[in-house]
Amino acid sequence: MRSTFVRRSVMTASAVSLALLATACGSSDSKGEDKADAPAPAASSAAPAAKGKTDAELAGVIVKQADLPDHLVKEATAAEAAAGAAATSDKPDCLPLVKAQSMAPVGKAAGTARTKAVAKPKDGAGGTPDDKMKAIMDALGANATAVTLSSYDGKGAEEAFAALKSAGTACAAGYGVTQDGESAKVTKVVPGTPVTAGDEALAYTVEADSDGVKVSTQLVVVRKANTVATFSALSLSGTAEQPKAVVDAQVKKLG
Predict the structure, then answer these.
(1) CB proximity list for 242: less than 8 A, separation 6 or greater
(2) Which of 17-21, 232-236, 249-253 has the lowest mean pLDDT?
(3) For the chain, which end, N or C, has fewer CB atoms within 10 Å of the first or last residue's CB respectively?
C-alpha cells in the first residue's frame, strides 16, 4: 500500500459521592432513651481521568536523530499529516489500520506527533566494486518507518488499541484504501512477529497490491499508559522488516 510517507478526556469525573446514611438501631436503655444517630461517613470522590499529552509534549518524547544513530530521522510534513487524516477505506472496520499506516491517530486524540526513520545502509565506499554495488542495493531496499504517537484522554488509548486489534481480525481478508488521490488494495493482514513492549502491543504483516506491484509492510502498535505508538515500515524492495530498533528506541523514550 502506498502511503504519504513513501511519497511524500480530562474526562470530568462527576460527583459519584454516595451518601451512606448509617442510622444506628436505637437500642433502648433501662430508661427508654434512644441513642443518637451515627454520623454519615465522608463522601468519596472519584479520581480525575487521565489527561492526554499535547502535540508539544509528544514532540518532546518522539524519537530523534540522536536516538537512532543508524537511521536518518526526519520530521513528517504537514502535507503528509493532512493526507493521512483524509485516508479512507471501503470497509469502515478497517479504517483503524488505514489510519495507523498513514501517520494518523485512531479516534480522537488529545495530541499527535509524527516522524520518519530510514535505516542507513552499510558503507561500501572502501570495498570492491561488488561491495559498492551491494551497498547501493541495500540503500534502495532500506527499511523506512513512519512513527506516530497519539495520546488520549481517559480510556481513549485503550479504545484505540482495541480498535486496531479488532481490525486485524475483521480485515484479515483485505480491504480497499484511498489516500492522497490514489487507490490500493490490501489483500491480506496476518499476525507479525510478536512484540513485547509497553502495556500491550501487537504486530501485523500487511500485504497489498498497488498498481500491480506486491508490497508487504510491517505494522507494530504499542500502548504505553494513555499514548499509542504506531510504526509502519516499508521498503522499496517490496518486503519490509519489522523495525525493532525504532520500536525499542521509541518505547524507551515513553518511559
Answers:
(1) 192, 193, 195, 203, 218, 220, 233
(2) 17-21
(3) C
